[in-house]
Design a protein that fits this description.
Rossmann fold, alpha+beta, 302 residues, Dna Ligase, domain 1, D-amino Acid Aminotransferase, Chain A, domain 1, 15 strands
């Protein structure tokens, strides 16, 4: 008997329609739902949690595709599903406590470091302390990231003290208001950034893109900077695949994208982040892989 799969997203569901088609082609029963339809009723004959008017415990596997800002909804749903013994993807939701997804980058950095995953040297503190300590730790330029940034956004790289001062003045009020936190990392001179897509214990696809600040250290050729590469990585570099799977498993992420860079001068590799809710349009376009089908195959197998 095929498993019933529920996929839940934090916002609208239109972009998840390819899962319905993939489910039909695979003969897998799939339902797409939004956290906005989540309901809880207590002290009545119908006590329980409902999503889109249905008991989510009627499904064999529930994949939380994207939580977004729906942390309270996700916490309620995870608590209910764990009580009912329903398999939840990712694994991190099944750990003790209610884990916030995405994992803040400060926590992610510590977990990866503890498990020996190579990542750029990192310093986490309030912005004023970052401004005092990071220049001596890393020198200029270095990188500043919002700890809840997504898809490579919320990233800055001050080249000098004046630029750093501007960032401190801009971000310190957000910190005081409890709206954001930031960390600093060393600047790695890598001209390409590889995104490796992981499902379960396999790296199924990878693409490469030029890094944002590569022109700071690249040399011109005939007066022009080398053109950045944008294509699929076939086959996936073995070391990148191994690092991506190791990093994802360290964080309890079963379906995700790991961003990996290779320092141009030394060939040393670093994991920048693991995105638990990656976009995969570019993966599909560059590689031709039907990501939705691959995800459903995995969800049906667990």
């Amino acid at each position: 008997m095929s498993k019933k799969i529920l996929i839940v997203v934090g916002g609208g569901t239109k972009h998840l329609k390819p899962f319905n088609q993939a489910g039909e082609e695979l003969g897998v029963e799939v339902k797409i739902a939004s956290f906005s339809t989540l309901e809880l009723v207590t002290k009545s004959g119908t006590s329980g949690v409902r999503i889109s008017g249905e008991d989510p415990a009627n499904y064999d596997v529930v994949y939380l595709r994207l939580v977004g800002r729906r942390y309270e909804d996700a916490a309620l749903l995870v608590y209910y599903l764990r009580k009912k013994g329903i398999r939840i993807v990712d694994h991190t939701y099944e750990k003790d406590g209610l884990i916030r997804i995405p994992i803040p980058k400060s926590v992610e950095s510590k977990i990866l470091e503890d498990l020996g995953v190579p990542l750029p040297r990192t310093f986490f503190a309030r912005m004023k302390t970052v401004a005092e300590i990071a220049p001596d730790l890393f020198g200029f330029p270095f990188v500043i990231k919002g700890t809840s940034g997504k898809q490579g956004n919320a990233v800055w790289s001050p080249k000098n003290g004046d630029e750093l001062k501007e960032l401190v003045e801009k971000f310190s009020p957000l910190e005081k208001a409890g709206q954001a936190r930031f960390l600093a990392q060393e600047f790695i001179k890598a001209s390409q950034r590889n995104r490796v897509f992981v499902i379960g214990d396999r790296a199924i696809a990878a693409i490469t893109r030029p890094t944002r600040w590569r022109k700071r250290f690249q040399e011109r050729v005939d007066g022009e900077y080398p053109e950045g590469k944008r294509h699929a990585l076939v086959p996936i570099p073995e070391e990148d695949a191994d690092l991506a799977v190791k990093a994802a498993q360290a964080l309890g992420v079963e379906i995700g994208g790991a961003d990996i860079i290779t320092e141009d001068a030394t060939g040393k590799k670093y994991v920048l982040e693991v995105n638990s809710a990656p976009r995969w349009d570019s993966i599909k376009k560059d590689t031709g892989i039907n990501v939705e089908k691959e995800i459903l195959k995995y969800l049906s197998s667990i």
